[in-house]
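Lab notebook, entry 394. We have the chain sequence and a SMILES string for zinc ion, and the next step in the workflow is to get a structural model of the bound complex before anyone spends time on docking refinements. Request logged below.

Task: model protein plus zinc ion, output structure tokens.
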Amino acid sequence: MSTIAAAAGVKLATHPSAARRALRRHVDEDLNIIAAGLLQDLALVQSNERSRFGYKRAAKIIGAVLDRSVRELIAEGTLRDVPFLGASTERVVSELVREGESPSVHKALAAYAKRSDVEKRRGFRRGFLSRHTMRLALDAKLGAGVIAVTRFRGDLQMHTTWSDGVESVAAMANAAIALGWTRIGVTDHSYGLPIARGMSMAAAAQQHAEIDAVNESLAGRVRVYKGVEANILADGSLDLNEEERRAFEYVVASPHSLLRRDTDQTVRMVTAVREPGVAILGHPQGRMYNSRPGVAADWPKVFREAARVGVAVEIDGNWHRQDIDYQLAEVALAEGCVFALDSDAHSIGELAFTDYSIAHARIAGVPADRVVNCWDDARFDGWLRERRGRVRRR
Ligand SMILES: [Zn+2]
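Result returned:
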């Protein structure tokens, strides 16, 4: 049981198999993500911008780009063959592999005055998967009781040129076909988020005509749903009113503000989940790797409410988000939630972030039956109809 689940006093819905326990050990001992964190620590203490950039780039390559384990590359002596990984990175990684820690990072930190800043940032890196470990999680033989990539029918959170994405609806739909998906949901930002070029309702109407045309031309290959990513305001209400929400086939409600506070925001999140028309609670925490903690809330309580009203909890696979992670996903699973596993892509390449979502779900032991992306069309459409039909309880 994860420490979060244990602290919350909840029982896990399933007993982990030996294969899933072994996978979990790999996750806990993910040297790639630990090495990336040490390099982020070093970036923090650099006095010049150039070396700060160099360490951050090395961290990103080891955390988010490398397929192979740094343990293997150190054993082979080939880490330096990876572009942009230099001698100082090799020293840190090799210390970590051989000694389980890095004396050179300790030394650099000992001379650094703002030690509390380092500790704070370390707290913003918990529960993330490296690309290497994500691949292990996808490849592990966990049995039919746990979601597999082959069961995934398509992504339900992505952005296009209608807000802050870089591709058209048609380009995203064709990319989905190339990935073997049969459905996607386009969820450009609503007008309440001008920083992300959120759509006016007039623009949404034009977008819907474009989606209709794409659906007509790609009929039988992929179906594009008309979603929207609405903004959860400070009091838990949404930037779109109930009538505006009805213009879409589904609403993802996500927090984009108040993501750096320690104060409890359970009421805000529970209120958002109860809002009529909401289908998915998007990147529930709003956390960001190495930079912000996201919303603090009594998550078992939020998830219990999501389960009660049938709102899916998202595992957002964007590498920097990974929100919620496998630990919270175990809690949501035990509370009876269904899940949406989404990329939050802003480009075609980012559609592959669904791999991280699926990996977190597999580590948590989520079955395909609890993942709305895996449901057949009849069940998925029925669930969306229910979400749209939900009225406010007084
Ligand atoms: Zn968002």
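Notes for the group: The pocket of zinc ion is lined by residues 229, 254, 256, 282-283 (CB under 6 Å). Worth checking against the assay data. The chain is about 45% helix and 10% strand.
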